[in-house]
Amino acid sequence: MGNLLCVIPLAVLLAGCASKGYVERQIDPVSCRVDVLESKMGAAETRSASDEQRLNALETRLATIEGQVSQAQLANKAMLDEATAKAADSAQRAESAASSAAQSAERAQKIFELGQKK
User: DSSP string covering 10-50, please?
Assistant: First the structure.
């Protein structure tokens, strides 16, 4: 009976141990999946870095374009102000010329009337 008591725990211990081949067969599929996932993760990180560089370049271009638009708006406002001032000056000169023409017409009418009376 003493022999049997030694054999049973030894049998249980040996039955609970996995062989090297068994462990490799169980780990290989998991290892392959991990390798595939690592590869996909590396590709995603590369794409992410590339996208980030493109985004930074686009942000720089946008800032440049915004600056150019701002400068164009200022230039347009200056031209509009200048054109408005010239138009106001031209309108004032036209009114002055019209007033002078009206005065000349009145004088010509008076001269005509005086000439008719003689």
Answer: HHHHHHHPPPHHHHHHHHHHHHHHHHHHHHHHHHHHHHHHH
